[in-house]
Each structure stands twice: as structure tokens, then as C-alpha cells.
Amino acid sequence: MSMPAFVPLTFQRLSTVDQDTRANAFLEAMRSRRTVRDFSPEPVPFALIESAIRTAALAPSGANRQPWHFVVVANPEIKRRIREAAEEEERAFYDHRAPDEWLEALAPLGTDWHKPFLEVAPYLIAVFREDYGLAENEAGDEIKEKNYYVMESVGIACGFLLAALHLAGLATLTHTPSPMGFLSQILNRPKNEKPYLLIPVGFPAEGTRVPNIKKKELGEVMDLVA
Prior knowledge:
Layout: H1 16-31, H2 46-56, E1 68-73, H3 76-97, H4 100-106, H5 117-120, E2 123-130, E3 132-136, E4 142-146, H6 150-167, E5 171-172, H7 181-186, E6 193-202, H8 218-221
Antiparallel strand pairs: 1-2, 2-6, 3-4, 5-6
Helix pairs in contact: 2-6
């Protein structure tokens, strides 16, 4: 296997002041990001969705295999089918599958099996992980190509995506109905892809309220080993 060509790194060395300014500006921008469950049906420029996915696709990945695929759903009928399938799974979760301690943890957030946002939000971004690549050999036979650190890679890409959407002035929700196999069926995805995350995107509805939650302090999430 041939080695890839190497090119000079493009890197801007910032002054200490600029470093601090940029870091804190990003921190303050992300501090205002909240999960939204009440969306406006107001249209969103598709160019913003494209730009955010371009950003997500820049994320690092194991061996640069880029094991992700983003399916953007705007079709009302497809969104309705996704909502119906998701609510079926969520109803089973809340009524039968979830242990009591999990339901107790969710109670302050006010969630239940009803998921109207899956139809109201102008776009749904279904993120799929590619557990392996598909290619053809010289004989025309299908072969599998191993991907590496798939879960970690797709998780990083989703972080990029959520940040990009927020910085574009859009609201999001990370939705993970379990199981999510219905997304593969409804969206007709190939066998090497598995659903990873479903992200409704749009503007928040007027008067939207969110839970009064707190984030852990820095000392609770970081240790310095010097």
C-alpha cells in the first residue's frame, strides 16, 4: 500500500491575546446552546445545513476512514413515518423497558414518548455510522473494508455538527430512540450503515422554555497532572 503524499501544514499562530479572545468567544457561544423540544415550522435556509455538515465532515477519524453519512430529511411524509416509528419505540421504552431509576433521572426534563418535534422541525439530520466500507475487487466482487474507531469518530463529527448548527443560529435536539433500526428501513440505507443519532434542526418555537439545569463545575470534570 502506497504512502499518502504529505503537504505543508496550514496553521495560523495567534498572539496570546487572540488565543484567549477566540477561546472565550467560543465558550460563551456554546454556553448558550440548549436542547430544544419545541420547534417552529419556519423554513431554514438549506445552505446552513450544508455548511454545518461540511464542517462535521472535517472531523478527525480513525485512519481517516471518515465512517459517517448524514441523511437530511425535509419531506413531510418521511418525517411523519419517522415520528410514528420513533414514538412506537419510545412508548415501549417509557412503558416497559426503562428501569425506574432511568425514568426518575428523566423526570426533571419533562420528556415522554410523544415526539412531535420530529414532524415540526423543518429538517431532520439522521447520522449513520459506517461499521465497514464497501468496495469491489478486480473481479467485481463486493468486499468489506475495515473502519477503525467508528463510534469515537462519528461522535466527534456529531460534536462538530452540533457546534456548527448552533453557531449558525439554529436550535437542535439529540434524539436517540432505541432501537433505531427503523431509520435504516425508512431511509433505505445500505447494510454497512447503522443509525447513530437523529438531530431535529430549526428555529425554536416562540415562547420555548427549557429545563433549569446546571453543568458541572470545571473542577468536577478536569484534573491537571503537571
